[in-house]
Structures are given as structure tokens and as C-alpha cells.
Specification:
Blueprint (H helix, E strand, L loop, with lengths): L1 H11 L6 H13 L14 E13 L18 E13 L2 E12 L4 E15 L4 E8 L34 E10 L3 E9 L13 E11 L2 E10 L3 E12 L3 E11 L4 E3 L15 E3 L5 E11 L6 E9 L5 H15 L8 H12 L10 E11 L2 E10 L4 E11 L4 E10 L14 E10 L1
Helix pairs in contact: 3-4
Length: 438
């Protein structure tokens, strides 16, 4: 079975595999009874794409101000080299990446991961089954993905995923079109990577989506259940006005929470913890995530995109202040008899609160895209509306021929001390990507 192959390979490559949960996923495949897939698969078609990516990240965090580890691992320069390949064959789509890394404190790392491995079976001219590890993109946003339950969430330091870090989730989907304008998707996913802080990892979840379109408007309504994490409902909509303006938005309300929260943001007195202090952030009411944006495509001018996002699960002003006080308390421990390794361990736990998808609640994003002299460009800025954090991004892409391209991406965070983006692991990054296909 395809899924057994995915589990076997990833287990050998240091993914933590739980046999019981694997069996549960196989049972889930058999139990799913309805859904929709919008692309047909040609079993005779095959293709392979490959790319080489070099990324260089630099953190300017002052070790004396934020000594997060004995080796100052977040105050160093990191070099990554990765080689990726993806393709389609006989209804199987796949993507894999080998990564080699090194930093200025001579810490080396290497990793090989299967990012996606998925098989599609045609049941009828209206229905298909899809099973394996894949990215399933339901959201309509660039800045955030409130209903992107089965896709990698956008990270601050690489909004367009130049480095190829995106990874699929193990899932099964049975899908059917209903009439000419509607579709139904039913998805079951059981992930094994419980060590990650990313909100889609380590979850057992199921979701139902009803989607359709009418005229220039496409829409969807979604219901979702997370094991031990509550349930929620969401919607997406995208519409075109005239030939130049597109409006889009998504909204999701969830009862309960799968978010983890540092106990230091709840307990009244700052202290040191001997074990991981993160606990489920239990909520007895609905929390919401929302995104609203537009894309303007004027003739003979660059494409202009603006988006705003809100997430109730982000830290509010009081929690953010409390977190900074906790960091300061652990920093000053060097003036006491607290062992350095103990202090550094607590600072590393503190840093886990900084979420690569955004730690606070409100953000805005502005992007301009166009082409000059056959070179495609994208210039964007992400703004943290709660504390005026600023992140700037530039990417350039040149098609070398019909099958090959080269891409350069740069990111830079210029922000005041003690604001959110000042605590990101990388304050600057340069990524070079070379790709081809055959």
C-alpha cells in the first residue's frame, strides 16, 4: 500500500511513526464516503522537476541581551543547501528534499524527508479517492490561512516558500462533484509529528467542505473536528469585479483550542521550569481567525495585493508584556547561582512562544508583482499592527529557457527592540534557487 511505503520511509528518516495511528488512518480511508477533487489525473503522464536551493540566514540578536543558549545559536549565521525533486507518475505525485546545514558555531545537520507522496484513484467520472501525504490548499489568502488545515502555514521569514520548506500532511480524501457548479470534499488526517508547534502538526482531524461558484464568485463552507481539540466552522469567498479587481476573504471560528501556551503567561509569579512548561491553551468559547484582502491587476501596471489578518489565538498586549518580563527574569539569572545550562534551557523554552506564523493578533501585507526585462519580481512588506514590526521581502525570477529558471529572494526585518520581529531566529536571509524540469 502507498501509505505503508510513506510510513516506512519516513520512519527510517527520523520521523516518529505511531503504528496504531497508522492503522487508524487506513481505517479512515475506508470510512470516508463523499467529497470532490477538481483536477483529473492522467495515469499515462509523467514528469520530474528538480531544484537546488542555497539559503543564508543571519540573526543579529545580541548574545548579551538574549543569551538563549550556551552556543548563542540564535546569534549566528546559518547556511543551508538543499536539493529537491518532485514529479508525477501513474497517478502518484511525490516530492522529496535533502537538506544540509551548518552555522557559525560549527553545528552541522543533514536531513532527508519525503514532503509529499500521494496516489489518486478514479472511482467514476465524478468521484475520486486520494490518499497519502500531500498539501491540500483550501484557503484563499497569502498572508495567513485561517482554513488551511491541511497545508503548511505561511512563515514570516519565507512568505513564498523559496526554500521549499512546505510539507504535506498524511490524509485521505474521497471527493465528488455535485451538478455543474458544486463539489463536496471529505478529508481525514492523522499526523505523526507531535513535536512541532505548527498548528496543523500532530493532529488527528476530519473536515467537510461544500464548495461552488456562481458567476464571478467562488465560495465554500467548512466544518472541522479535531480530536481533543474541539470543533469549528469556516468559510471562504473570492469574487471578481470587472477585469481588474479581485476580492477574497476567509473566516474560521473554533470552539476550544489546539494551541500551546507557556505556563509563565498564566502563573502569577515568574519562575524556572524543570520540564517543558507548555500546556494546551484550553478555551471554553469560540475563537476566530479572519483574513480579508484584494488584488488589483491594472493593464500595463504591476499587480497590487493588500491583505489584513486577525487571530484571536495570538498574544494580546498583556500576554506579550508578560512574556517579555519572563524573558528578562530568565536573562538576569546569570547574576545568581542558577546554573547556566538551566538558565539557557528556560530561555529556549521562552523562545518557543515566537511563532513563525505570527505571535501577535493583527497583521497587514502589501505586495507588488510585475515583470521588467523578462525578470519577474515581487516586493512585499508584512506589518505587525500590534507593535509596528516590519518585515520586507524581495524576490526575482528569471526563466533561462522553457524548462529552467533561477530565483533570488531576500528578506529583512527592521524593527525596534522588544517588538515581535526583533525576536525572530533570522533577521536577514538570502535564498538562491535554481530549478529545471524534464
Amino acid at each position: 500500500m502507498l501509505w505503508k511505503l510513506v510510513a516506512k520511509v519516513n520512519m527510517k528518516l527520523a520521523l516518529k511513526i505511531n503504528t496504531k495511528r497508522t492503522l487508524n488512518l487506513l481505517i479512515g480511508i475506508a470510512a470516508i464516503c463523499s467529497g470532490a477533487l477538481h483536477a483529473q489525473t492522467n495515469d499515462d503522464a509523467s514528469s520530474i522537476n528538480y531544484s537546488i536551493v542555497f539559503s543564508n540566514g543571519l540573526s543579529k540578536l545580541n548574545a548579551s541581551e538574549f543569551p538563549v543558549s550556551a552556543a548563542n545559536r540564535f546569534a549566528s549565521q546559518t547556511h543551508n543547501l538543499s536539493m529537491s525533486a518532485d514529479g508525477d507518475f501513474a497517478g502518484i505525485s511525490w516530492r522529496a528534499r535533502a537538506l544540509f546545514s551548518r552555522d557559525d558555531v560549527h553545528t552541522n545537520g543533514k536531513e532527508f524527508r519525503i514532503k509529499e507522496l500521494n496516489k489518486v484513484w478514479t472511482v467514476s467520472d465524478r468521484c475520486v479517492i486520494s490518499a497519502g501525504k500531500r498539501i491540500l490548499a483550501w484557503d484563499v489568502g497569502y498572508l495567513a490561512q485561517p482554513v488551511g488545515f491541511f497545508q503548511t502555514q505561511t512563515v514570516l521569514t519565507d512568505l513564498v516558500d523559496t526554500a521549499g520548506n512546505s510539507e504535506g500532511l498524511p490524509l485521505a480524501m474521497f471527493s465528488c462533484s455535485v451538478g455543474k457548479q458544486h463539489a463536496v470534499d471529505v478529508v481525514y488526517s492523522d499526523d505523526f509529528d507531535e513535536s512541532s508547534m505548527v498548528n496543523n502538526r500532530g493532529l488527528r482531524q476530519a473536515a467537510l467542505r461544500l464548495s461552488g461558484y456562481r458567476g464571478q464568485t467562488s465560495y465554500a463552507v467548512i466544518a472541522r473536528q479535531v480530536k481533543n481539540g474541539g470543533y469549528g466552522f469556516g468559510t471562504t469567498v473570492s469574487t471578481t469585479i470587472g477585469d481588474e479587481l479581485e476580492l477574497h476573504g476567509s473566516l474560521y471560528a473554533h470552539h476550544g483550542s489546539t494551541q500551546l501556551l507557556h505556563r509563565g503567561l498564566v502563573d502569577s509569579a515568574a519562575q524556572f521550569w524543570r520540564a517543558d512548561p507548555y500546556l494546551p491553551y484550553a478555551k471554553n468559547s469560540f475563537s476566530t481567525q479572519a483574513l480579508l484582502g484584494f488584488t488589483w491587476t491594472p493593464r500595463d501596471f504591476p499587480i497590487f495585493t493588500v491583505e489584513f489578518s486577525h487571530n484571536d489565538n495570538g498574544l494580546n498586549r498583556a500576554q506579550w508584556q508578560r512574556w517579555q518580563e519572563l524573558v528578562t527574569y530568565h536573562q538576569k539569572a546569570h547574576q545568581t547561582e542558577i546554573p547556566k545550562s538551566f538558565r539557557d534551557g528556560n530561555l529556549l523554552w521562552d523562545l518557543k512562544t515566537i511563532n513563525q506564523q505570527g505571535t501577535r493578533r493583527d497583521y497587514a501585507y502589501v505586495q507588488v508583482q510585475g515583470t521588467v526585462a523578462d525578470i519577474g519580481y515581487s516586493i512585499g512588506q508584512k506589518l505587525g499592527l500590534n507593535d509596528r514590526s516590519i518585515g520586507s521581502f524581495v524576490s526575482l525570477r528569471k526563466e533561462l529557457n522553457k524548462t529552467s529558471y533561477v530565483m533570488l529572494a531576500l528578506s529583512h526585518f527592521s524593527t525596534a527592540k522588544h517588538t515581535e520581529f526583533a525576536y525572530l531566529p533570522s533577521s536577514e536571509a538570502v535564498t538562491l534557487r535554481i530549478g529545471s524540469s524534464f
